[in-house]
Amino acid sequence: MGIFWDLLQQDELDKQEKKAENLEERVAQLEKQQEHTRAQLRKTLEALEEHLSRDIDGDGITGSTT
Hints:
Strand content: under 5%
Order of helices and strands: H
Oligomer: single chain
Radius of gyration: 24 Å
Number of helices: 1
C-alpha cells in the first residue's frame, strides 16, 4: 500500500509543478500584453493631444513626449 501512496503523492506533486510552470508562463504573457497595451494607449493619447492641441494627461506637453 505504501508504494501506491507514494506514486499518488508524486503524481500530485508533478501536477502542481506543471500548474506553477503554466502560471508563470501565463503571467509573463500577460505582462507582455500589458506592456503592448500601455504603448498603444500612449500613442493614442499623443495623437489625441496633437489633434486637439490640448494637454490631456497634465504632463505639460501637448502631443509627443519624444
